[in-house]
């Protein structure tokens, strides 16, 4: 269970991804659950019911109810883990958009970057600590009961949270311990991206270690690994490798952000009225070496854009009879960007208000040009 940093990609959907249930909101944060929770919950409940059935055969079918209650309690403990991340993030005025529950790859979606290494450390460490506290309380509860189904359930809940807490403290991304390591490296080097790269490589080493675990068990502890051991090692190792690789790519991406500037990426634009034929707009753009067309309203204000794809969709012999107003796209409020915006500001606009083109205005509110999403993506690939 780890808190996730918002990936810096040009556009993301505002709603929950497919295969996700929306459960409600906690402290204003959307609470969702992966549909995979249900089959995994059933498997866990069946497994735990076997344990209870062997120790308390008199329960009969009630052991399934007790087992499912244990699974629900474990899910609540995962929520406490993730909610701890969210509350500390909000304490530092960092927006939190979603808490996603599941037995594998649960996460808290935190927007933006931490401002200091200590913020990174505090937000990351609190989740595993919350799991360890829940585990400790469950253990104390089991000692207080000391017998019966309640004892077994609380003891197993304590053990499960101990595993969650300790595992998440491993110093490699995408685990919480990886973000803790990033905070330490960031503090030592003064460079956040260096911290991410170090923690991502540590995550890859942990992934390789997990994949090798069944063989190590056999060689060192003389324990014959089972097929289940190899399957679990493969799944966990794959998850860790993919997560650390994604973090490594994100770090390299972020290093390019300061070099991205709207002023240098924007295409020069010509301004025409809605009744201008497409052929005339193309001619004017060619003469002035412009790469975009802005449509002005009757009061001389920009109100629509004409994309290159829209122009290409009009046959050459139809362009004299087709006006730019017929092929233009109205400029929405979120599709305007400042000429002095850079890196994070550009990507924030692209994520929150996805579009193929954005009107670029100078500090005086005058048209400077047009920023195309394709040009931003090309800049990432070539830098």
From TrEMBL:
Q: Where is the active site?
A: 82
Q: Where in the cell is it found?
A: Cell membrane
Q: Which GO terms describe its cellular component?
A: plasma membrane
Q: Which residues form the CBS domain?
A: 267-309
Q: List UniProt keywords, sorted A-Z.
A: CBS domain, Cell membrane, Hydrolase, Membrane, Metal-binding, Metalloprotease, Protease, Repeat, Transmembrane, Transmembrane helix, Zinc
Copy out the cofactor comment.
Binds 1 zinc ion per subunit.
Record's superkingdom?
Bacteria
GO molecular function per UniProt: metal ion binding; metallopeptidase activity
- Name the coiled-coil region(s): none
| Cofactor(s) this protein cannot do without | Zn(2+)
- Which segments constitute the Peptidase M50 domain? 69-141, 154-202
Q: An example of a Gene Ontology BP annotation on this entry?
A: proteolysis
Query: Where are the membrane-spanning stretches?
Result: 35-52, 64-84, 121-142, 148-173, 194-215, 227-248
Please name the InterPro entries in this protein's record.
CBS_dom, CBS_dom_sf, Peptidase_M50, UCP006404_Pept_M50_CBS
Family from the record: Belongs to the peptidase M50B family.
Q: What protein is this chain from?
A: Zinc metalloprotease
